[in-house]
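[Automated response] Your request has been received and processed.

Submitted sequence:
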Amino acid sequence: MPQRGPTAPPPVPERVTVPGRYLDVDELTLRAEALTTAFPGLAVLRRIGSSRSGEPIRLLSVGRGSRDVLVVAGPHANEPVGGVTALRLARYLCGPSKRAGTGRRSGPADTTWHFVLCADPEGARRNERWIKGPMTLSHYFRNFYRPGLAEQPEWLPTEPGAAPLPETAALLGVQDELRPYLQCSLHGVDVGGTFVQLTRGLPGFSGRLTGSARDLSLPVERGPYDAFFWPSPGPGVFDMPRPRETDQVATRPASTATSTWSHPHRYGTVTAIVESPMWAVDAVADTSEHPDPYGALGSVSRTLAEETRHLSGLLERVAPGLPDSAEPLLTPVTEYLAVSADLAGEWSPETALGPSGSLPPMNRARVTALRIAARRLMMRSAGLLHQMLDDGGEGASGHRLARGPAPEVRAELQRFLTEGCEAFEADFRTRWIPVSDQVEHQFRVVLAAAELAARTTRLPGPADGGSPDDAVPRPVVVRA
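Generated structure:
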């Protein structure tokens, strides 16, 4: 068992200059290469796999400790903050105070850090049309891209015997190689607040998360859609279901048993999914009683059902003219619309708040989270549909879409997006969080998680949903 460190929180590391904007895939690689040139022997960049189209998936490693932390950036194609955070952490770990000494103390000081710079480079490139700005919801949703669920790197195949995606195989391979005591998956919720999901508890973590959020004026989510039913040991922190358990939301797949988050559970790894918001909504932190949850859910459910039918009808009108190249956009649209139709029924107040209702007690934070989730699903669906019909977009444009219903549908999607984004901003009072603050928050939270996980790491047992047989002993690794 590692020796325990001091109980008092360490001072916040001095802030260093970080880019005031997101970086694209090529920029991440160039900056990582520059770091290895500046710190030869301490920072190493290597290729751990390839995407489906042959894009390199790169791992930047810093340090020579006997234990390992794995940080995964860019698992969702539309969330670019993680790559900048990875470089911020790597640059900090190459600093003079980290190079001094032998690095043989217990805890984070005896750690080699590894950063997957971008887990989905193909998807990330499709988002490069918005990451340089302007940072408005309208520009973001009109250029948003995230692949279908089966094509996202952190999800394992659900069919027995099916091979994982090449991107997923790269993540699994590096997890099996490193057997890290901590894995951090860096996410950037587009609208909402900060929160963290954990595969195992880290006592004291909530205080560190909320302290950073308070310092940077970030709201802490108290009932996020992604963890709506999960227990919360403290503000902003949510415990995932055990690897052999399933989620409680009928419209969502099990998030742990079918993901790379739980794969290293057998090695005693703690996985933390760290969310940092792009646009903040302060109401997600309000745990006061909602005055009319029944009416609020009724409005969300009705509006979601109506808009889902509207967008589904627009898709049906243009679907016959879509070329095969539209498939990367068509798949997520189809999934979003199917999920939205199911959620509209699940969130109806008669179902959700009745005697056999599925929702927990609805305070203002939880109602806000569901309202945001519904609006997000519609804006993403409309944005992807618009890209399929946009002559300036990639893949789906062509002479077949210049005739028939496509021009009329395109104009309707323009109206829907404009009015929807304006309502999103006004209804939720969204405010843009500077990229440097998004990065700084993730930087602090990851360092805190590493410190706390180093004190508590152990191999899984029955209390963790596993058994002693699940534990795979780590071999002795000698590093030069």
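Summary generated for your ticket: The mean pLDDT is 87. The longest strand covers residues 43-50.
If you did not submit this request, please reply to this message.
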